[in-house]
Amino acid sequence: MTERLPHDLNCLTITELQKHAAVMMDKQTRDYYNEGADSGSTLQENLDAYAKYRIRPRVLRDVSKIDTSVNIFGHKNSIPLGVAPTAMQRLAHSDGELATARACKKTGIAMGLSSFATTTLEDVAEASGDNPHVLQLYLFEERDHSIKLLKRAKAAGYKAVFLTVDTPMLGRRNLEIRNQFKLPGHLTIPNFQEQGDEKPEAEAEQRGQGRARRASEAGYTDSEGKRVLPKGPITFHSHAGNPTLSWERDIEWLKKECGDEMQVWVKGIATAEDALLAVHHGVDGIVVSNHGGRQLNGALATLDALPEVAAAVQGKIPVHVDGGIRHGTDVFKALALGADFVWIGRPVLWGLAYKGQEGVELCLRLLSDEIKLAMALAGVVKVDEISKEYLVKMDKSGFIARL
Ligand SMILES: Cc1cc2nc3c(=O)[nH]c(=O)nc-3n(C[C@H](O)[C@H](O)[C@H](O)COP(=O)(O)O)c2cc1C
Ligand SMILES: O=C(O)C(=O)c1ccccc1
């Protein structure tokens, strides 16, 4: 196992990686990546929830051969963890999503690509090769944009789409507002450009659509207070949210569009009720997520939502979780509470900012190593052996309960 230990003595934990990344980013980027909505209490609780659980380790079980791998979208994944879709990775490093895709391929770890990536989905598919990659979607009121995107994803060989459902509107992020955060001029969101169209915003400006763009970047309404719909060029900040989405109309529509070629998952489930609706509407899997605490502040931590979701779903479809995962033992706890797989968001951005592809590999290797070590020390040799038998829950007064 020691031969797999990453050798960067400055960065032996994700917390250290966060610290080193912080000085590599400008304030706008650092704040955009790191902050949560409003007071940030849900962001913090996503992290703190893990400390409420303790592991019950079993011993004398021959843990000399540990298999950390799992199957996802018909592919082998080296660990039960993937890279969650996060927007605009070229803010962290000039190689952006390409660096992430290469690091994922090298380590055999699935990658989610944000539809608001700063790299085309085709380039990421090419860099990923046969390593599993999924496309995150925001469904727009104007279906043309989404139809085009889905066509491209199919053609590029994406096996699944993750429809983000916790974003009917974008959450309020105060630092982002105060910093007047916007995408620097040299970067684009090419998944919404026609292929071969280099700089649609400049053209749109010439066509007289600049006003709508400026209005939508400043908020989500135009100067008359009307919502700016994605008629003109898609820009990074105006079109992430769609308040009209519904199970009946949109999930059914998306399933039809994706056909047999791409699975449809929903990302952003936080209750048993919605998990059951997801099963009812025939989605292929769900991700328990609160968008890394960036949407509804005051929503419960994802680890706290997970048990009711897993109990409702009863294994009918896969249940994944993200939010606040920073250690191998966090992965162990999430799996013990019923998740089949976990995703990490910010740690990968920190790796990217620290050292591009090498930094992402470092991040993924640290976590791989910690997962293997957690399994060995808890006495399990296969991922599907991890169950709630291995956990206790501790309340604030120190009372310990078996699960
Ligand atoms: C900077 C940033 C950008 C994000 N962009 C997207 C996005 O475009 N689409 C999406 O579905 N989720 C997005 N997310 C949410 C992540 O997919 C994921 O749910 C979250 O980061 C997990 O929490 P963690 O950062 O604590 O690991 C973003 C998160 C961050 C931090
Ligand atoms: O920042 C986010 O959390 C996010 O999902 C997003 C994605 C694209 C544009 C704006 C926000």
TrEMBL record:
Entry similarity comment: Belongs to the FMN-dependent alpha-hydroxy acid dehydrogenase family.
Residues annotated as the enzyme's active site: 291 (proton acceptor)
Pfam families: FMN_dh (PF01070)
Origin superkingdom: Eukaryota
Region (Disordered): 188-241
Protein name as it appears in the record: Oxidase FUB9
Lineage: Eukaryota, Fungi, Dikarya, Ascomycota, Pezizomycotina
GO cellular component: cytoplasm
Basic and acidic residues: compositionally biased ranges: 196-208
All copies of domain FMN hydroxy acid dehydrogenase, residue ranges: 6-396
Binding annotation for FMN: 85-87, 114, 136, 164, 267, 289, 322-326, 345-346
A Gene Ontology molecular function term of the record: oxidoreductase activity
Binding annotation for glyoxylate: 32, 138, 173, 291, 294
Cofactor requirement: FMN
Annotated keywords: Flavoprotein, FMN, Oxidoreductase
CDD domains recorded: alpha_hydroxyacid_oxid_FMN (cd02809)
InterPro entries (alphabetical): Aldolase_TIM (IPR013785), Alpha-hydoxy_acid_DH_FMN (IPR012133), FMN-dep_DH (IPR000262), FMN_HAD (IPR037396), FMN_hydac_DH_AS (IPR008259)
